Amino acid sequence: MADNFFDFIGDNNDGHWRIRSISTISGTPIPSADFLTIQQGNLQPSGQGTWSLKGFRSNIRYAERPEKEQLIAVQAPLGRSEATYAALIPIRKTAAWWDLTQEERRAIFEKKSHHTEIGLRYLPAIARQLYHSRDIGEPFDFLTWFEFAPEHEAQFEALLMALRQSEEWLYVDREIDIRLERV
């Protein structure tokens, strides 16, 4: 189970990824940092860096069996040598989102916003991993990690634009867009 826990640490001195930019899309910003390190297997306070965002990998939620099978069939793995660009996008949703039932969230997520359908358009060029943070008391509900080759950056921008224009994003009250390049 510990292998599913991750700590994303922003630091000004060292890291595996150089931070190209940190943009506050909505809500309170986070402090600036120059580098990012990802540590696996520990949710204890790291005491390192300028900031730390923790999350855990879980099962795929809100997807029905055919959608899950489609995603698994075309999703590229993280860590590909050509994927030297990355983005970490922490998101927090409103209390109104969490007051909805699972079925109501699913209807917004998929039937109205077409979240999975949008994501499938950009696979396998853009690899993605979702980390859950809400259940462990973190300031964000989700940390989404994306990896892609520099030549797919325009596709990544199109993916973000489509998601941010969906009904689901009406429920986002804090979002930070952190762009990175492998050191």
How would you explain this protein's 3D organization?
- The structure is a single chain.
- With 183 residues, this protein is an alpha+beta fold.
- The chain has one domain: Alpha-Beta Plaits.
- Helices cover 24% and strands 34% of the residues.
- It contains five helices and eight strands, in the order ββββαβαααββαβ.
- An eight-stranded antiparallel beta sheet has the order 4-1-3-2-8-5-7-6.
- It is globular, with a radius of gyration of 16 Å.
- The protein starts with a strand and ends with a strand.
Tag the structure with descriptive keywords.
183 residues, alpha+beta, Alpha-Beta Plaits, eight-stranded antiparallel sheet, 5 helices, globular
Number of discrete helical segments = 5
User: Rg to the nearest angstrom?
Assistant: 16 Å
Task: Give the biggest beta sheet.
Answer: 8 strands, antiparallel
Secondary structure: number of strands: 8
The shape is: globular
CATH architecture: 2-Layer Sandwich
Question: Roughly what fraction of the amino acids lie in strands?
Answer: 25-35%
- Please give the oligomerization state of what you see: single chain
The CATH topology assignment is Alpha-Beta Plaits
Q: Unreliable runs, pLDDT <50, ≥5 residues?
A: none
Distance between the termini: 29 Å
Structural class of the helix and strand makeup? Answer: alpha+beta
Secondary-structure element series: EEEEHEHHHEEHE
